[in-house]
């Protein structure tokens, strides 16, 4: 199982609404994530907007591609894009750059 961690930046003035949206993620989005191979997926948000994502999957690129192929992900990303600081205009799911793991304790 591959462990993946990534960072994104939520606009600080939108963190409260971002939290609210994630308290009620669409059931079809949750189903799509599971079917695409996203497991043990967590998001952590600091008040200044730093977002840390963590997930486990067999193959991150395949799991990301599987989500990109879904209609529900296209709708979710379109709605969530306004929450993120993205200097190059990338959608949040395309801006995920996995961090290199340097230590893990089982």
Secondary structure layout:
Blueprint: E1 2-9, H1 15-22, H2 27-35, E2 39-45, E3 50-57, H3 60-68, H4 71-80, H5 92-95
Pfam families: rhaM
Protein name: L-rhamnose mutarotase
Organism: Streptomyces macrosporus
Could you state the order of secondary-structure elements as H and E?
EHHEEHHH
Number of domains: 1
- Quaternary structure classification: single chain
Per CATH, the architecture is: 2-Layer Sandwich
**CATH topology, what is it called?**
Alpha-Beta Plaits
Q: Please state roughly what percent of the residues sit in beta strands, choosing from under 5%, 5-15%, 15-25%, 25-35%, 35-45% or over 45%.
A: 15-25%
Specify the CATH class. Answer: Alpha Beta
- What does the average pLDDT come to? 93
- Which of globular, elongated, flat, extended, rod-shaped describes the shape? globular
Which stretches of 5+ consecutive residues score pLDDT under 50? none
Structural class: alpha+beta
Largest sheet: 3 strands, antiparallel
Rg from alpha-carbon coordinates: 14 Å
Largest sheet: spatial strand order: 1-3-2
Helix content: 25-40%
Number of helices: 5
Distance between the termini: 13 Å
Q: How many DSSP-defined strands?
A: 3
């Amino acid at each position: 199982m591959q462990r993946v961690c990534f960072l994104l930046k939520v606009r600080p003035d939108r963190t409260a609404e971002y939290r609210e949206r994630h308290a009620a993620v669409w059931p079809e989005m949750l189903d799509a994530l599971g079917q695409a191979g996203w497991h043990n997926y967590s998001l952590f948000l600091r008040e200044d907007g730093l977002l840390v994502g963590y997930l486990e999957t067999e193959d991150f690129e395949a799991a990301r591609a599987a989500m990109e192929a879904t209609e529900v992900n296209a709708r979710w990303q379109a709605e969530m894009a306004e929450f993120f600081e993205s200097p190059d205009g990338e959608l949040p799911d395309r801006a995920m750059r996995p961090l290199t793991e340097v230590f893990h304790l089982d």
